[in-house]
């Protein structure tokens, strides 16, 4: 019989022993009696490299320690334990993502057929996330997509949902799991053959679900130190090779996998239900009676494995399937000996006694399972042999674990311990002091008031003003809408409504501000009405390009951004002008159809335009204005485009500039209807020639216009909206709408001051971990209550230069994230667009987006408003609006922060808070006092 432990970790995983290297694993495996051991952590590139150096292939997907090392270490293995050890490449991946509106955290155990396959899988994973900061990486990928990736790279991959019942990080867990395997793996469910039952459940519990009948149940240690290896394991009758294991785990007949070695499930940390902080431990029936709420604090209980199994089970307790594989419940040897000796399992006396047993009897699992009792009595005395007998017979006293607290398994009752005292050779006095668990009175607490769910309040309805904007026909329409007022919803409904009324979808034009917004809008339209999918969605740029290409009768050559910058730099040097100023001024000029360069820039303008003409090229800023020029110059062209559409809809109208408005007028010349929507308080593209005055001039540009205001905000909690509105108060506008928050009072935005950008980044990372409710079991056991997925969170900054320390801190914390607007280092992965990560982006890029939680960092003098190193300070009004945009991206939680000192563009030193902060009413923010880590440690020491 071959004992296999397939799920372990290396020293490259968090919170694991430093001693987890191949040599020590080889030694520990023999002491335990393991013949086939997963390496753990193959996704970690450095660990994989170490494995490649130290292991040699045995030719069948299995590896062994290189013979020289094995020879050198052989003497360290107790004689009767010496036996061959094979390794298979294994790893565990944590995926955290939103599915069906719920944040899922699922761990998967993956076995790769060989090093080449492991490297291929790693190369893909490396493009999608961070695999270097943790041996068990956390990825913002759907578990189904992770499986697809593995199958792509290694069709023979063994993919096993890990410890399927743990509440937080598993397929069926009570906190974030699914009710059926198919909900998680969809079309790929057929590739799952085995499930890992985890410490808190044993096969008997799993047999109660007929849905699991077709899966092989495996058990592994998930060890974080060599001593914990094989605390659970598999009994194999097959050869120690990869293909043999793959067959054993997938063959319907059951050959190859004879059974498993198990913890008494009560000993697992999540067997029963309860609240560790409140000292409450409950059986499933008690939890049900309490409605799932803690009788002490009234908050939801941590529902453990037994409850969850009962919820999903369709068979009674004790059900035995035909041909049920065997399983044996064991207690680790040091715990058995510890109880016999009445000492802690890690004490010196116990360790020595265990050593003696290994040296005289054999490996641990042999001692526990098979060694003749007389032999154990000879070496360890009668109490030891009686202890082992009882364990084998299942005659144990159990106290179930709950809410992260290990349970207790005892082999003797307290009275017996008294009687036995002094009888055995390994018997010592020193009664253990197990913590007594209180079971609090079962009084029913007041139920918590139901939370307002956004989904409930939403529906598919439009409010009366929205309806009006959708239904209006005739005169040009301008809709002024506050943040979160449903602009997208209105535009989509309007376009769909027009199509339903009979408008030809191809003759309806929707203009969005960015390409990304266009893609999103197109998707929403398709969802609204099948024919609405044919509505033309475009940006002004793309439209300009199309018109120009038609005018010129050829495809356009567009100067790339880098080439453009280089050209301007060269010319700026020639005319002794500052390149950044020249770039901006050229851009600004090109937002008009007929620019009039001032004397200072005129020579450079001329030179730049000739250089473009020489290359037969245009720059991006040319697209709209040149299109408008072409339409001015050709009556035919103007006629064609004037008759091209019947209805035009424009989003983000506050950011359109003069050239775009001219273009728009040409498109309407044939009598098309116009509906524009926007928010002048969110005008943030002044540097591109847009102005909120442009918005307010709509009625002059399009005579006879009709205006509608949308004042109900569905995104921000009232506290967030108030703080944001307060910010605008110092920039009065008689036309400003007063907004009302529909999402309820919400919580106040947080304000925090940190010593440095690094400290600020660390604070952000720690908060993100809290918001997600913890990314590993230590964090969830600390009690972080958040339920957000990474994709619900954004970190916004004024300058891309601020991204580096944030990226570093998030990477270190193992948080999946992406930096928007950054060139990807590696080529992008096909799954890239599906990956779900925390977004790091500029405040400008966040326009139009929404997130449950938003961090606005660097709210400092010099950054907001931005003061370029040697240039003009940015416009105060516009910077205020930018902060307003950033703050109103947040639905539930908003965090504003700054560093007290920061070095930017080589200039360091202390910095004050942003003057804009003074515009936010006092009391609208909740200041968080952040204790530095060193100081926190000091406090800890004295606590
Ligand atoms: N009538 C409505 N009832 C309920 N929810 C709504 C309604 N209209 C819009 N919403 C929701 O409000 C949120 C904000 O909508 P949307 O993103 O379209 O706002 P917006 O006006 O474009 O905001 P911003 O200008 O800040 O980008 C979305 O989650 C949307 O689904």
Automatic annotation (TrEMBL):
Keyword Cytoplasm: no
Molecular function (Gene Ontology), one example: hydrolase activity
Annotated ATP binding sites: 481-488
Region (Disordered) residue spans: 420-467
Signal peptide bounds: none
InterPro entries, per database record: DExx_box_DNA_helicase_dom_sf, DNA_helicase_UvrD-like_C, P-loop_NTPase, Pol/histidinol_Pase-like, UvrD-like_ATP-bd
Membrane spanning residue stretches: none
Record's protein name: DNA helicase
Record organism: Desulfoferula mesophila
Lineage summary: Bacteria, Pseudomonadati, Thermodesulfobacteriota, Desulfarculia, Desulfarculales
């Amino acid at each position: 019989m071959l004992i296999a432990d397939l799920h372990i970790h290396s020293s490259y995983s968090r919170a694991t022993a430093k001693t987890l290297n191949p040599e020590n694993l080889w030694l520990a495996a023999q002491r335990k009696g393991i013949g086939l051991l997963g390496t753990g952590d193959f996704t970690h590139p450095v660990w994989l490299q170490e494995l490649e150096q130290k292991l040699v292939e045995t030719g069948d997907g299995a590896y062994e320690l290189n013979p020289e090392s094995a020879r050198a270490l052989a003497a360290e293995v107790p004689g009767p334990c010496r036996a061959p050890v094979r390794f298979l490449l294994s790893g565990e991946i944590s995926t955290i993502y939103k599915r069906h509106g719920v944040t899922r955290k699922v761990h998967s155990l993956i076995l790769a057929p060989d090093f080449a396959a492991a490297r291929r899988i790693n190369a893909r994973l490396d493009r999608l996330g961070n695999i270097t900061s943790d041996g068990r990486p956390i990825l913002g990928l759907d578990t189904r997509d992770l499986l697809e990736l593995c199958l792509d790279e290694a069709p023979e991959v063994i993919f096993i949902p890990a410890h399927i019942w743990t509440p937080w990080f598993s397929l069926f867990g009570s906190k974030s799991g699914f009710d059926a395997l198919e909900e998680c793996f969809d079309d790929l469910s057929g590739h799952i053959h085995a499930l890992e039952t985890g410490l808190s459940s044993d096969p008997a519990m799993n047999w109660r679900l007929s849905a699991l009948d077709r899966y092989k149940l495996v058990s592994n240690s998930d060890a974080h130190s060599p001593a914990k290896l094989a605390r659970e394991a598999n009994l194999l009758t097959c050869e120690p090779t990869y293909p043999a294991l793959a067959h054993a785990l997938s063959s319907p007949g059951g050959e190859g996998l004879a059974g498993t070695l198990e913890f008494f499930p009560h000993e697992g940390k999540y067997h029963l239900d309860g609240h560790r902080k409140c000292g409450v431990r409950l059986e499933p029936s008690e939890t049900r009676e309490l409605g799932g709420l803690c009788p002490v604090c009234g908050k939801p209980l941590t529902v453990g494995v037994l409850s969850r199994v009962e919820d999903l089970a369709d068979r009674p307790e004790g059900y035995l399937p035909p041909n049920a594989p065997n399983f044996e419940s064991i207690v680790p040897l040091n715990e058995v000996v510890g109880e016999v000796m009445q000492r802690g399992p890690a004490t010196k006396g116990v360790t020595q006694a265990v050593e003696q047993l290994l040296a005289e009897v054999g490996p641990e699992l042999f001692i526990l399972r098979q060694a003749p009792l007389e032999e154990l009595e000879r070496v360890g005395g009668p109490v030891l042999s009686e202890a082992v007998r009882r364990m084998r017979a299942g005659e144990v006293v159990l106290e179930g674990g709950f809410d992260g607290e290990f349970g207790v398994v005892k082999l003797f009752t307290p009275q017996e311990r008294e009687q036995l005292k002094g009888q055995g050779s390994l018997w010592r006095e020193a009664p253990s002091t197990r913590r007594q668990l209180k079971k609090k009175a079962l009084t029913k607490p007041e139920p918590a008031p139901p939370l307002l769910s956004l989904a409930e309040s939403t529906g598919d309805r439009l409010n009366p003003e929205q309806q009006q904007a959708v239904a209006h026909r005739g005169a040009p329409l301008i809709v002024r809408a506050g943040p979160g007022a449903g602009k997208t919803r209105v535009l989509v409904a309007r376009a769909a409504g027009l199509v339903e009324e009979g408008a030809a979808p191809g003759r309806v034009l929707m203009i969005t501000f960015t390409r990304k917004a266009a893609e999103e809008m197109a998707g929403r339209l398709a969802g609204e009405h099948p024919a609405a999918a044919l509505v033309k969605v475009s940006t002004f740029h793309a439209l300009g390009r199309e018109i120009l290409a038609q005018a010129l009768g050829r495809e356009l050559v567009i100067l790339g951004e880098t080439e453009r910058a280089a050209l301007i730099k060269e010319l700026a040097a020639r005319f002794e002008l500052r390149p950044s100023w020249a770039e901006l001024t050229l851009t600004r000029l090109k937002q008009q159809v007929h620019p009039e360069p001032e004397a200072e820039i005129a020579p450079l303008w001329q030179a730049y335009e000739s250089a473009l003409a020489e290359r037969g090229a245009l720059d991006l800023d040319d697209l709209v204005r040149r299109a408008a020029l072409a339409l001015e110059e050709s009556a035919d062209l103007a006629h064609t485009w004037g008759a091209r559409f019947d209805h035009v809809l424009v989003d983000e109208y506050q950011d359109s500039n003069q050239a775009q408005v001219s273009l728009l007028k040409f498109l309407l010349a044939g009598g098309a209807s116009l509906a524009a929507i926007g928010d002048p308080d969110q005008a943030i593209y002044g540097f591109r020639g847009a102005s909120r005055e442009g918005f307010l001039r709509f009625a002059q540009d399009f005579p006879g216009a009709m205006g509608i205001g949308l004042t109900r905000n569905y995104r921000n909690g009232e506290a967030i909206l108030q703080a944001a509105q307060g910010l605008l108060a110092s920039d009065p506008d008689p036309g400003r709408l007063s907004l009302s928050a529909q999402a309820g009072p919400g919580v106040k935005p947080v304000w925090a001051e940190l010593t440095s950008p690094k400290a600020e980044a660390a604070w952000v990372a720690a908060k993100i971990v809290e918001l997600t409710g913890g990314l590993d079991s230590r964090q969830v056991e600390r009690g972080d209550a958040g339920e957000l997925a990474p994709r619900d969170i954004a970190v916004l900054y004024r300058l891309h230069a601020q991204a580096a320390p944030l990226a570093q801190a998030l990477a270190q914390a193992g948080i999946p994230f992406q930096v928007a607007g950054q060139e990807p280092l590696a080529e992008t992965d096909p799954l890239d667009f599906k990956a779900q990560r925390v977004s790091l982006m500029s405040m400008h890029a966040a326009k139009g987006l929404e997130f449950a939680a938003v961090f606005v960092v660097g709210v400092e003098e010099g950054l907001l408003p931005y003061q370029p190193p040697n240039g003009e300070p940015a416009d105060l009004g516009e910077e205020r609006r930018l902060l307003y945009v950033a703050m109103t991206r947040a639905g539930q939680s908003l965090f504003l922060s700054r560093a007290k000192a920061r070095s930017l563009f080589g200039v360091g030193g202390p910095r004050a808070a942003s003057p804009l902060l003074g515009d936010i009413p006092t009391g609208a923010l909740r200041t968080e006092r952040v204790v530095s880590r060193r100081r926190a440690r000091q406090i800890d020491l004295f606590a």
